[in-house]
Amino acid sequence: MKSIKQLSFALITLGFMATSGASYAADAHPETPVSAPAGVKLVDAKQVQELQAKGATIVDTRKASEFGEGSIKGAISVPYDPEKSAKSADFNAAEDKFDTAKLSDKNATIVVFCNSGTCWKSYKAAVALSKAGYKNVNWYRDGVPDWKARKLPME
Hints:
five-stranded parallel β-sheet; Oxidized Rhodanese, domain 1; 38% helix; alpha/beta; single chain; 2 domains
């Protein structure tokens, strides 16, 4: 009888820990907004391909090391790193670093992406570009995981 009580207690404890851990994980990696920030267009994989075919600049905002492990074919690396600001829509871009020197044409069509809805780098980059006067900013929220899942060209 004692072992059944101990087993029940252990299972309840594990269940609580798993639930708490899931809650903690969700809080540690909040989702980005599901709509694009002001001045930015939300795009999907098909639209990224169409824009790229028309000459859009595809910008990987992940760390350079992540870019080196594989990215959307034809993308350039412009890391939004280090990312120190809050992971929220009202973040303070002054706390972060995003060097737009590779993006000199403010009228060019630009698509930014990173690692999906829990990766804030591309969202923040899109906001920063829009606020800096870039006119044609697109945000591919689903990013690399979606691109890979669709078996689209990587390099």
